[in-house]
Design brief:
This protein is mainly α and 327 residues long. The protein folds into two domains: 3-91, no CATH class; 92-323, MetI-like fold (Orthogonal Bundle). It is 76% helix and 1% strand. A two-stranded antiparallel ribbon has the order 1-2.
Length: 327
């Protein structure tokens, strides 16, 4: 075994242990913080409704939501997907969460992949043509587009293409109760996905383009690019195999952080287009003061952030091996 492999294995193990402890700390906070909140949320959740509870029913609810199961039992319940019961939606929390998760993954995952790929390629090509009219126009246009908030883009697309032209649905992720073939259903899902997806791509693409372009401009000035040109290597190979790979690291960081905060990032867009993802679920739970749902979504999003950051650390070592051997 080489010295580099001998030293890299403990580093990776230490990294995994560190993230594991951080995850355990987040789980403990999700267990302890709701029990430290002042007031009685069992009474608060019915204060704005027309439901009248008997003393016995109220006592049963309070015992169910405020019982002290112990942290060990809490971990077992989390692992068995027993995340409690939503008193606003009258459904197990895990069913609500996993019912909304695929829609958010579809929307956010597709938007991130498209905006990253297109932003990376156009940013590389623009930097390679630095000081040209095309590059200046693209930089100016993307700078303006980067300053437009998601809510404005979403509302404009909704009003123009859904309400005025009627080309796309104004709400939902698929047509309710439609009995169609699998191919027709996929087309229907894509039809509903178009506007929220376009909103997020327009929101993420300019930043990816500008970041890639700026990174490429710095990389092109490096001596190894000059050496590659002196060797007579093809321009496309120099552009992507040598320059673009070294300019990719900041974009991977941006991609991971955006993906890590997908639940809160999708909240505005999902609300505008009434898309049934985790952002909409979290918003409705907050409106209804549904503590079990809020607790589950926040914990899941926190663990998702940790997992993606850990994945980024591993990917960094593949893109740039120098990080693996840095002290």
């Amino acid at each position: 075994m080489t010295d580099s492999a001998t030293h890299s294995a403990p580093r990776r193990l230490g990294l995994i242990i560190t993230f594991g402890l951080a995850a355990l700390a987040m789980i403990y906070l999700s267990y302890s913080l709701p029990r430290l909140l002042p007031g009685d949320f069992v009474t608060a959740m019915y204060s704005s409704s027309h439901v009248t509870l008997t003393a016995e029913q109220e006592a049963e609810l309070r015992a169910y939501y405020t019982e002290e199961p112990g942290f060990g039992r809490y971990l077992v319940k989390l692992a068995s997907l027993d995340w409690g019961y939503s008193y606003a939606f009258l459904t197990p929390v895990s069913a609500l969460f996993f019912g909304a998760l695929p829609w958010t993954l579809l929307l956010l995952g597709t938007a991130h992949v498209i905006s990253m790929f297109v932003g990376f390629v156009t940013g590389v090509e623009a930097a390679w043509r630095r000081d040209s009219h095309l590059e200046r126009s693209m930089v100016g246009g993307m700078t303006v587009l980067e300053g437009v908030p998601e809510i404005s883009t979403g509302v404009i697309l909704l009003v123009v293409f859904a309400l005025h032209l009627g080309w796309f649905p104004a709400a939902g992720a698929e047509t309710a109760y439609a009995e169609v073939s699998l191919l027709a259903r996929l087309a229907d899902v894509g039809h509903h996905l178009a506007l929220p997806l376009a909103t997020l791509v327009l929101a993420y693409f300019p930043g990816n383009f500008l970041l890639t372009r700026n990174s490429m401009v710095m990389v092109i000035k490096q001596s190894y690019i000059t050496t590659a040109r002196a060797k007579g290597l093809p321009a496309r190979r120099i552009r992507y195999a040598h320059a673009a790979r070294n300019a990719l690291l900041p974009l991977v960081t941006r991609f991971g952080l955006r993906l890590a905060f997908m639940i809160t990032g999708a909240l505005v867009v999902e609300r505008i287009h009434s898309y049934p993802g985790l952002g909409t679920l979290l918003y409705n739970a907050i409106q209804a003061r549904d503590l079990p749902v809020i607790q589950a979504v926040v914990l899941a999003s926190s663990l998702m952030v940790l997992t993606i950051i850990l994945g980024l650390e591993m990917i960094y070592r593949i893109i740039d091996p120098r990080i693996e051997h840095a002290h």
